[in-house]
């Protein structure tokens, strides 16, 4: 049985070229009890799904009702066909690639610190202990135009150990070596600069680089804000309506999220740029003397966001009980 998610108190950033190490602190619980904890996304999704009624979520569903889409295509995050159909801006290549994975230590990893990061010119890697047996790891690098991205997990793992991170500390390579192959993925990082009754959320709406760790969090924010606008519409009409009112509710949702996600997108891109782009004195000063020293406040400010309260829609309403589209 896995332990509870760890509450990181501090981490360390090591410059591979100089050997210098800086300590960074993580935000402590605020007055509302909010705190930072790393968690396996699969565990979070399972916990959320367990709170919903049976058959609420449909997995592996295929689109059939939108004209000009192939049946095998769907709403797939940053590659969302629905987002393209809506005419949303295509993702922009950030000039980075990223590898992610999850290491499993059945007997315990025995790591002394919660979070370690290593930086060198053009590359950045690190790992974070999720609990006493699981460790999340990542590697980010600069991509060349036309560069092929491997997709086979075994090949990706081999490339990380023998090529991409061969000069990184043994502590990092040990974590990568213990990876569960099913969790390893590699791809180019993308971002987006800032109709009708259809909308999207999460990466399909606002892909961002992973440098602030806010991609999944912002998708959950989307869900709450979207649910609030749709819920208020149901309360107002005492049923789920279609037509212009839904379109207006979705427009309000998009308008409310616009500047919040724009800040996260730009912030994540700049965080990646500062940490691994270039070796000049100015970039070193910006990274070592400003960014890492204020890392805690940057992360703290990002999490201080109020999504608002979800309206309470009771299924005891007769009109809702007879509506196959009712919500709980």
Automatic annotation (TrEMBL):
By its UniProt entry, which Pfam families does this protein fall under? FAD_binding_3
Task: Domain (FAD-binding): give its ranges.
Answer: 74-264
UniProt entry tagged with the keyword Oxidoreductase: yes
- InterPro entries, A to Z: FAD-bd (IPR002938), FAD/NAD-bd_sf (IPR036188), MOase (IPR044560)
Q: Name one GO molecular function term.
A: monooxygenase activity
State the UniProt keywords alphabetically: Monooxygenase, Oxidoreductase
Family listed: Belongs to the 3-hydroxybenzoate 6-hydroxylase family.
Protein's UniProt name:
Monooxygenase 2
Give the organism, scientific name.
Quercus suber
Gene that produces this protein: MO2_6
């Amino acid at each position: 049985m896995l332990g509870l998610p760890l509450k990181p108190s501090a981490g360390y950033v090591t410059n591979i070229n100089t050997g210098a190490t800086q300590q960074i602190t993580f935000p402590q619980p605020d007055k509302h009890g909010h705190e930072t904890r790393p968690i396996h996304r699969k565990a979070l999704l399972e916990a959320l799904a367990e709170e919903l009624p049976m058959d609420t979520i449909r997995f592996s569903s295929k689109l059939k009702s939108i004209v000009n889409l192939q049946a095998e295509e769907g709403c797939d995050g940053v590659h969302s066909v629905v987002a393209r159909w809506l005419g949303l801006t295509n993702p922009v290549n950030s000039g980075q690639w990223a590898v992610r994975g999850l290491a499993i230590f059945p007997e315990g990893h025995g790591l002394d610190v919660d979070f370690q990061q290593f930086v060198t010119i053009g590359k950045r890697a690190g790992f974070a202990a999720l609990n006493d047996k699981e460790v999340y790891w990542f590697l980010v690098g600069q991509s060349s135009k036309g560069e092929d991205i491997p997709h086979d997990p075994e090949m990706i793992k081999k490339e990380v150990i023998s090529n991409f991170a061969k000069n990184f500390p043994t502590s990092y390579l040990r974590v990568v070596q213990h990876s569960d192959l099913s969790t390893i993925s590699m791809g180019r990082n993308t971002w987006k600069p800032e109709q009708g009754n259809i909308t999207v959320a999460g990466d399909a709406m606002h892909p961002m680089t992973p440098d602030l760790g806010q991609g999944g969090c912002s998708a959950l924010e989307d869900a709450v804000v979207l649910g609030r606008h749709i819920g208020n519409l149901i309360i107002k009409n005492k049923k789920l309506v279609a037509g212009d009112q839904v379109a207006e509710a979705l427009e309000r949702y998009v308008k409310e999220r616009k500047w919040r996600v724009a800040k996260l997108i730009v912030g994540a891109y700049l965080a990646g740029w500062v940490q691994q782009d270039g070796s000049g004195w100015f970039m070193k000063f910006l990274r070592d003397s400003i960014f890492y020293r204020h890392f805690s406040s940057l992360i703290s400010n990002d999490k201080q966001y109020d999504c608002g309260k979800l309206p309470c829609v009771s299924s005891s309403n007769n009109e809702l009980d007879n509506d196959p589209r009712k919500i709980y």
